[in-house]
Amino acid sequence: MTRVATLDLCALADAIATGTISSVAATQAALDRLDGIGRKLNAVVRLNPAHALAAAEAADRKRASGAALPPLHGVPLAHKDLFYRAGEVSAGGSKIRADFVPDVTATVLERLDASGALDLGRLHLAEFALSPTGYNAHYGHALNPWSPAHVPGGSSSGSGVAVSARLVTASLGSDTGGSLRHPGAMCGLIGLKPTWGLVPTEGVMPLSASLDCVGPLTRTAQDAALMLSIIVGRDYRSALTGDIRGLTLAVPGGYYRELLDPLVAARLQQAITTLRDLGVTIRETATPDMALINALMQVLMSVEAATIHRRWLIERPSDYADQVRARIEPGLLYPATRYVEALSLRASLTQAWLDAGIGAADVALLPAISVPVPTIAETTEGDPADIAQAIARVTHCTRGINYLGLPSASIPCGFDEAGLPVAFQLVGRPYAEATILRVADAYQAATSWHLRAPPGAELN
Amino acid sequence: MSDDRQSHMMSDLNGTPDTERPPELKALVRNNNRLIAGAPLPFDSTPYAFVQWLSAADRRS
Predict the structure, then answer these.
(1) Interface pTM (ipTM) of the complex?
(2) Residue-wise pLDDT tens digits, A357-392
(3) How far apart are CA B34 and CA A335, in angstroms?
(4) How open is the CA angle A397-A375-B21, to the nearest 5 degrees?
(5) What is the mean pLDDT of chain B?
(6) Which residues, listed in sequence order, are joined to residue A428 by a DSSP beta bridge?
(7) Strand, coil or helix: A218
(8) Beta carbons of B54 and A340 less than 8 Å apart
(9) By a Cβ cutoff of 8 Å, what residues of chain B touch chain A?
(10) Does this model's pTM top 0.90?
(11) What share of chain B is helix, strand, coil (3-state, %, to 5)?
């Protein structure tokens, strides 16, 4: 069971395809670890073991028949509890939708089904996907496998915990203001937020249609490329050549350095040095006014969320955590003119950000999170103003990127003094996912941060 | 129109419970409204400009 858990997505898919490991053995190992370690870390919402094992047996029979196999044939996965499967509960981390049963299946799940992947169940998330730390007042925090006292990052908290703790090899999450990159950075994973609109969001619980993106959390860039290839229907794996000589990396200053912790800054500098050694040219750049971009993001997110939540805000206000309701309610108060302006300014501000932040370079490197991973206590206890500040620090470098709609990913690049992961963030032009993954893959080939397993994985 | 008056009207229109909102929430809305109102709007922009811009970027990529 432990040996199966050490394999990443590509290695496990190869092992099942060649018959080195049966799908039943891989699925049973994943179910055992999800049910044991996963529940201990509060990462699991529900599992469907009977259905999963029957599908695994069918996968093994198909392999034995000599039939051609799809890329994720018989590979067990589990996903954030906001991806709908017709006829099965999808609660979105909320009390209000605890019994919601959709009548549609998410397009991305249909694409994973067609690729041969098995769906073992659903993983924990922040209430209504609305917390960068993974806060969930109703069902508790998922626990970071690197340290249970620290937040795992959210909103795709269970997905980050499950992949980091080697319970599954990959998991789908969603990102409206950093919800893939936060758990990616805090759990030591690649959290890939694709270009807005690239991956279908049909059958995914909406938060803010103009910002929501679906993407994978994985241990490696190779795994992220495999997942993205399947859910998009384009090939991203062939771009990972291992050679990034001749590329230019922009390092924007100004806003992205404002809150930067010295230790995080040192880790980022080490990553930049590694990339330079791999043949990348480094160029310092500036950024446009992020105060305006963040304000516009806030308007879009809160207005669109308040539109969805309006009836519940009226009829069931006490069924929201205060922290969550306080992020949605401002959307009731913005005039429609502000909302239309926020949409209208998007193309010109994105072009301005690209011109200033990336310029002639291929991709930009920013902090994923400017500060070390906060503790659960720092983000839930004490003065509400201090809590709000601690939460805002987490999203400082992520939320604006959602307004811009650009592709970005967290890439682990070391650890802080408490043993929690530190990560940088790569941001590209629209549809430049292949470039981001190519740089991340070359970086991972030259480093070993992504190979370290957290104590919470219980591999020893 | 003052922000307080506007908030009151919005609350009535939406039928939201007449709860006391924290000052930082009001300040956030007020500050964002001010920032956006002062932003230079392109003359021919529409809410759909971003989708068109992305579509053009996809054709180039």
Answers:
(1) 0.86
(2) 999 999 999 999 999 999 999 999 988 888 889 999
(3) 12
(4) 70
(5) 79
(6) A363
(7) strand
(8) no
(9) 6-7, 10-11, 14-17, 19, 21-22, 24-25, 28-29, 31-33, 35-37, 39, 41-42, 45-54, 57-58, 61
(10) yes
(11) 65, 0, 35
